[in-house]
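LOG
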Amino acid sequence: MVNFLLGRVGKTGLTAVLLAAMCTRGGAQAAGSALTAGPDTTSATHKAANSAAKISSAKKTPATAKKPTHILSKAASKSRSAAASAAKAAMASLRSKRLTSAFVASTQLRPMAQQLMTTRAASAYSGVMNYAKTHPGDGAAAAYLALGHAEILDKRYDAAEADFHQAAASDALDDYAEYLGAQAALSAGRPAAAHPLLDRFAERHPGSIFTLTAPVLQANAYLTERNAAGALAALQPVAQTAEAGHTDFQYALARAYQMQGNTGAAAPLYRNIYVLQPMSAEADGARSQLTAMNVPLTPAERKAHADQIFDAKRYSEALSEYQSIERDGGLSAGERGSLQIYEAVCGLKLKKLGRRDVDKLPETSDDSAALKLYLYSELDRNANDLAGHDGIVAQMVQRFPKSRWLEEALYSGGNMYLLKKDAEQAIHDYGLLVMMFPTSQYAPSSHWRAAWLNYRLRRYPEAARLMDEQISSYPAGTEVPDALYWRGRIYEDEEHNFGQALNYYNAVTASYPNYYYAVLARQRIAVLQHGGASTSTAPVSVLAHVPPPKSAELIGALPDNDEHLIKARLLANAALNEYIAPEIAASPTSGAWGALAEAEIYNGDGDTTKAMQSMKRSGISFFGMQVAKVPTAYWKLMFPRPYWDAISADAQNNGLDPNLVTALIRQESEFNANAVSRANAYGLMQLIPATAKTVARKQGIKKFATPMLLQPATNIQLGTANLKGVLDRFGGQTEYALAAYNAGDVPVRQWLAGGDFKDVPEFVESIPYTETRDYVQAIVRNRELYRQLYATR
């Protein structure tokens, strides 16, 4: 994006271009003042460094021991550097103590502020305001931050501006008070009030998370005042930073150029945003500004924009875009026909397309002709016209062998035949996709499904070949642990090469220690070792492609004196939750502890769900690392046990493993007692009201009502009883019951009736619904983790 912006002048020339722009229309004075202005006062750090330098220079070496000038210079430099470092450390320590004091002073505010952010009810506002009035100083400042934040969300910008002004009286979170206060002032139509809050922001608030975005906000204030030179001067300090690649920066820069009448500089920036960043908040504005400048977008640019919206599965918006391009004219007959076909595929995704609609579409000569055939193939699939579907796909193979739509048709066809239990045809479609599109996003899963279906057809040599190929060709794919385990099973069950089977099982447990297939691999290892299988068999070369175990340098003790961590905790007191993670990430050492810090902040509020979700977002490869390699605190936030007493009691009453129930709740609701799904399932164990009513009657619960399912105790009582009933219907087999809990009894009975499965793991891998298969594997895996993490005698 930056390269596009700098295409005409080069990266090194951006500063010069900005300065030249600032020097137009009276901008030189603004540029000069912006670039030369210094801090109002000398910081304590600078004073300490200067003082140390003076002391150092005052200590003269006797003449008899005079040293060379360069040695003196090095010694003085080291002395000054040491003094500056010491002064910086002292300032950091003072700052940490100051923030800690503010945190302690506002601790009691936290539940009130969090309630305000959740409800924004009048009573919540009143409670926080009363706190501010009765807790002067840091407590009041945090309260006013909470009030201002809530007022912004409620679009009461004047009140928010006043609240942030009160909050700025304390220096604990004054960067937040000033930055958010400037946002409120700008939203209230008072840009002049924003400037004093944003001037020299980075100098006044070093280390703030807003140092790169404050110049953009100030630029927008200047633009509101129609001061293009001021906007360019504000943007210049961050022009060579990562912020210059963000759409907010580029949009502000484009507006400044536009305001100066420099259409040639503004238009490429707007085009860049509209075409390459169509999902950004600035995309619509970019198009409007291009229209205002009478700079038209080409149909190709508009279609590229619409295509990305389509790929994001926003089909209604994409349809409107395609229709708008067609409606505005200026297209050849072929271009108009192509657009009509793209409009039709949106209709297909929105389930508003019939065969007659496709019959009316024109014939085209570009890739939209392949898309038209794809539409026919999908309609034939929906109509269960298998011969028609296969004939269309065969045409696409001949006429459009490189088309994206052939890739889509083959994957769709493979999935259709998988569901129809036509393994041969599914293998054909999946295999053809892999052969023709080896780098497709669908290639790893298609390759694995072909391998698995060969296994199910008991073609073990071909399955073994494909499984080894899966490991070597797609080593980064999620299917590798599956391939390792089942190739090991072929070595064990069919080839009776127990030593090589052990090598494959060990590869699973080493590189994927907490995956579902690692649970199964450990079971097979125990069986083989008990039988005396050789442990000295040399591994085959394929295993060299298995990725090494994941690792991460994590610490279990938080650096409580870290300024950004204390600040994040203080933000939680004021319920500025969306800034907690960025503030923690601003610490240079947060990579080793940031995930734990964020989760513990949420956990401190009793929000187990949010704590666990933050761990999930952390990017830590929990399932790819040995439990012992990650501090216990991380695991217990990733796999918490709220409501454990109720779970244990009700599980025992129903003869269930409480770890299984906990793992199921984690998968169903993430321990959110108020969860209500789109399928109308309620509470921790996601019960359908009709099912819950039946179970409640059997449990002797009178006057049952659906809202009772949001009560944790009631939901767990009814949910465990319901799970016990499902288990009983499937002979106590956990995996069958879990599949039925997710997909319903009828599909599971159909799968079992026509499956001819050798064992339960084969049933699980053969579940045709991806969601259900992943659901069963996740709960079984997580049950084992709960057992391991909370093991008791």
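LOG (cont.) second protein
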Amino acid sequence: MNPHRIVFTVAGAALLLAGISSEPRAQGTDLRGVVSGPNGPEAGVWVIAETRDLPTRYAKIVVTDDLGRYLVPDLPRASYDVWVRGYGLVDSPKARITAGTTSLDLTAVPAPSEKEAAQYYPSTYWFALMRVPPESEFPVGKISSQTEWLHTIKQGGCQSCHALGTAGMRTIPDMFRKGGEATSMQAWKERVTAGSARATMARGMGALGETGFRYFAQWTDEIEKGALPFAKPERPKGVARNLVVTTWDWSQPSHYLHDLVSSDRRNPKVNANGRVYGSAEMSTDLVPILDPNTHSSSSIVHPVRDPGTPSTKSDPFGPSPYWGPEPIWDSRTLNHNPMLDEKKRVWFTARIASGPNPEFCRSGSSHPSAKAFPLEGEANRHLSVLDPKKGEWNLIRTCFPTHHLNFGFDDDNTLWTSSGAGGANVLGWLNRYVYERTGDEAKAQGWTPFVLDTSGDGKRGKYVEPGDPVDPKKDKRIAVSMYAVALSPLDGTVWGTVLGYPGGIVRVAPGANPTYTALTEYYEVPLPGFGPRGGDVDTNGTFWVSLASGHLGRFDRSKCKVLKGPTATGRHCPEGWSFHAFPGPQLQDVKMAGSAEVSYSTWVDWQGILGLGPNVPIAMGNGSDALHALVKGEFVTLHIPYPMGVFPKNVDGRIDDERAGWKGRGLWTTSATRALFHGENGKDGSQKVVKLQMRPNPLAH
């Protein structure tokens, strides 16, 4: 028996086992009608139907067609509030319908002024009002250029956690005004010391220095004086009107979510009609669970091996205008980035214990990876796996830090991990076959440094260290840490992103014995792109990445003129890069091409689950309450209009029933802002599970 297996309490096991064989409920009622305004039918506006009659709050959202017609399919039997939302409008009065109502015409309400209309604009339109120093002023402190400044705001510590233009961000709470005695700059300095994330906020703003506080203060001052977005969002058009959005509440208002999982990436038929699992990262050890068949949510505690593992409750904290003087985060596990395997088990990167790495990780150990590259420090996260059917957890202590994870296509079902920012400069993995056969966590894991083939001989040999000059007769180790990690279905190579400015991506060919044979290629992002975050590789081996420059970056390795040798150190393949500017306005002081949009990550729809075709890259539109799908070189923006402030960090696709057409498949995501209370519903808002489906037309049943 695995000594690190943890069995649920009876209550916890029953909670999960109850939903293992759940079947989809019978289809509900369609609701249809026409939306009209003073000038006739309203095209491209949303009809929202929401109920609290089910075990958890539920909503379904559709878009009107050219004639203002709508059809909300399959509403579960309940009473609903129904209303119209759209750009250029204010929300219509909510019509209350009883269970079984099938027809309802609605009246749209034009916004009485630009100010009222702008309250419904995505946050990026408000963020675009922020002034930034002109290029002529740089360097500013330690920041060398305007593009590095933008990277710092977008990916370096601000908008990677929440969107700056939301209602709660573009105004300053009275608490920081100190009764009107504090200037706006002083109020902003107080603001970044509030709440459980104060250390991260203070570090991010600290990089911008006094100039940063001045520009943030100017931004909120101008909005307070009446400044409005200089650009207007477009209503959905074309295939974007075919979108059906379904939402369920889960978790708690004081928690936040990182992401969720619904199926095995390699086979999206796994866990058909099953439960969806989330990760709450630093906010709580409760793992949220949604059963979309019963419209019910629950949670289970992620355990730790070491009871002395510290909690985020003890991290630096400042009084919050929303939550008061006490911390609201309380997590020991920091559980992160769940993935399902082919057996419907849920894998996490999670902290299971604290303290220095075990002896087998260090110098003097006989472990093959430790002999090649010992890890003396402490891993911030490890690995865990939940078997819902058995009601068991297995906790796996790794030497290498973990952050994101993805399964390989090999017979051993190897689980590859990234280490996140500031990791141990290694790529780590768990051989699942060895682990499941032996239960030996030390024997099953391995890691390797990132080594470039600067000798050009096609194999890994002796290498020089990161600080040493390139030796054409040797390879070269580079000190990078992967953030995203993705496995290529084309050739099994491991791809990932490297955070920073300008940042880059890596490709690792593991070889027969990765500890000693893995060879790395590193490609720096060239201008106009910069600042990578999450990325993914398609089935053709092309890598797609979200960039702080406001682009979806595309890297095609087949275009590279040089792949190895003494010049292959990062800047050797600008010809492999191309860039697609995200929809939305650019910041008004930025002349470089791009967008004010901030995108946390990109996921490639290998199998065409959504219905837009295979290999479509889908970037998170974190400033747009949306996903941006790149279809034949053009973006299709998939809006999630309610509640405003939804902040997806990733998506996951699942096929529940191949015979059911669009109804049997969909993409899943969750609101993942660390500041849900900055959004439409304030501190009373709830986290959302979001399902997106694409039907053949806006009226399809």
